[in-house]
Each structure stands twice: as structure tokens, then as C-alpha cells.
Input
Amino acid sequence: MPVDTVGNASSSGNAFNGNVAAFRVVASAAGALTSVGINILTANAGHARTAIYTDVAGSAGTLLAESSSTLLVDNSWNDLPVTGVTIVASTAYWLAYQIDTVNTVVFFQSAGATDSFVTQAYLAFPSAPSWSTTSFGPTNLRMTYTTPPALPTIGLPSSNVVPVLTVVQW
Output
């Protein structure tokens, strides 16, 4: 099951309460999305929602799917079910999250990426917001998806003779 991650756990700090924050990730394989996760240090009884957006010329685009609100678990990856999206290999997506409490502490990369955000209360994700951007270390997020099963291969007999079926009509 492929897992593509943005950010890392090199630092920690309070989550973007009152905002939807999104960070860019490129899919390493193709498959069906199963979850978008957020790496939480201290939940403080907080809830989160996660989502996935399209990429439009290097910026977050439109909403593809989102999770329901979920109670967070301390010091753990919190993988929230997000389904109904077919992931295309080598395609960029934006993983987004929102938190309902100011005391939730997330892991993030201490430097390095442009993120997109929208100021809003803790509600369903906006479908096509007017994103603002800032340069901030990305929150440690990941998407998990299943890959399609490999098609069976049919080998030839070792003698390289191809069987022939003859149909006789009665």
C-alpha cells in the first residue's frame, strides 16, 4: 500500500486553528485513496478533518474528497478515511487539514515549503476556495492508497508450442 508524505516530524507546534491548511505532495504510484493522515503530538481532546485537493499550476485547486470530523489520538498518526478518489502516479495533490482546538500540537518540518490556507471556522472543507499562500514548514501529512492488483500473466508451455483450439460445427 503506497504512502506519500509531506513534511516530517523534525519540529512540533500548535496547529493552524481557524484555518484550512494545505500542502503539496506528488503521488508515487497509482491507486484508490483510502486515507489522509496527520501526525499529532498532543491532541488535547481536539478533532480534525482531512481532505485532498487538485493541483492547479502548483497551487491548491478544488476539493476532491474529505473525511468526517474525528477525535484525535496523542503521539500518533491519525489516518482519517478519505475515499472516492483515484490517485494518478506522478500527479501533484494538496493534502489539507483543519483542527477544532488551539491546543492541538502537530509535527511539522521546520522549514521549507509553500502552503496554501483559507481562514474559516471548523466546518466542511470549501470546494474551490480563494487560497492565500505563505512560506512555512509543512505539517506532517500523508495519503495512503491501494494499488490495483497485477494482472495475471499466462506463460507459454516450455516447448513454445501454442495450443490451438479447433471448433467443429455439427
User: Anything to note?
Assistant: The chain has a mean pLDDT of 84.
